């Protein structure tokens, strides 16, 4: 196994409504395309927001490339790109202008990096066109390009395929596949769709009511059943746990 990219140890976050995530342990290695599956409200976004520092965990330890998120945030996040929550591309701006705007949040993005990100997501030819003329899939590809402009080696994508039609899903899937195989980028992706995760990921975890019920290699999990069957089994047999 390769270098440890992300190490999550015993992370808990309880929201005021008592929901949240509880005692999450997760280790990702270089080259992983890890899919976090779970129904609405399972806690996927809560975990992702904690990982990128948008909210703070109640307890637990998180390390990126050995750097603690708590004590060395900038070091930890240096090589991490993310797409959290619904993508917001400004409709009246072009694809290029959107990325130029996003680049201002970083210290050292070169125009070449933006050009490269646009090429990677297949929007270079239409970079000067307004986003209002783009399809949902193209808008999602801008969001992906946004996550790529800093040349990350680890990319976190919260629901990158939700709300996309089949063409859009295939486009995003192909980009992830390309980045993983050609550039060795490690991914953590959340989705409701077991079918899609089966096509994209090499490992998956099932998050349900804030608990990470199972983690496994796709090849092993799908030896005798589809990933969807495994997922449904997992969720149904592990039933109800409340944290009141
Ligand atoms: N800021 C908050 N305050 C209170 N409760 C919250 C907050 N954020 C999330 N929750 C609750 O925590 C639970 C997990 O929500 P979360 O958004 O992490 O789930 P999710 O798996 O990402 O769901 P979805 O697929 O619908 O995005 C939900 O029950 C939600 O109501």
Automatic annotation (TrEMBL):
Any one GO molecular function term: ATP hydrolysis activity
SUPFAM superfamilies: P-loop containing nucleoside triphosphate hydrolases
Keyword Nucleotide-binding: yes
Domain of life the protein comes from: Bacteria
Gene3D superfamilies from the UniProt entry: P-loop containing nucleotide triphosphate hydrolases
Cited Pfam families: ABC_tran (PF00005)
Annotated ABC transporter domain residues: 6-234
Record keywords, A-Z: ATP-binding, Nucleotide-binding, Transport
Family label: Belongs to the ABC transporter superfamily.
PANTHER family for the chain: ABC TRANSPORTER, ATP-BINDING PROTEIN
Descriptive protein name: ABC-2 type transport system ATP-binding protein
């Amino acid at each position: 196994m390769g270098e440890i990219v992300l190490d999550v140890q015993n992370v808990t976050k309880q929201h005021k409504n008592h929901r949240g995530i509880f005692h999450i342990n997760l280790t990702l290695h270089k080259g992983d395309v890890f899919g976090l599956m779970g129904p609405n409200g399972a806690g996927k976004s809560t975990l992702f927001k904690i990982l990128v520092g948008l909210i703070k965990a109640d307890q637990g330890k998180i390390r990126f490339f050995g750097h603690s998120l708590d004590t060395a945030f900038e070091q930890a996040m240096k090589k991490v790109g993310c797409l959290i929550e619904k993508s917001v591309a400004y409709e009246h701006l072009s694809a290029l202008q959107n990325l130029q705007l996003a680049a201002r949040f970083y210290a050292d993005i070169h125009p070449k990096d933006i050009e490269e990100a646009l090429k990677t997501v297949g929007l270079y030819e239409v970079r000067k066109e307004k986003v209002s003329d783009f399809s949902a899939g193209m808008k999602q590809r801008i969001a992906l390009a946004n996550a790529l402009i800093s040349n990350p080696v680890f990319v976190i994508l919260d629901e990158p395929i939700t709300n996309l039609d089949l063409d859009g899903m295939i486009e995003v899937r192909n980009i992830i596949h390309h980045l993983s195989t050609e550039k060795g980028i490690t991914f953590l992706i959340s989705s409701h769709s077991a079918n899609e995760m089966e096509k994209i990921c090499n490992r998956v975890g099932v998050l349900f009511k804030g608990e990470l019920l199972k983690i496994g290699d796709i090849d092993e999990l799908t030896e005798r059943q589809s990933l969807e069957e495994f997922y449904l089994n997992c969720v149904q047999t592990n039933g109800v746990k409340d944290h009141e």
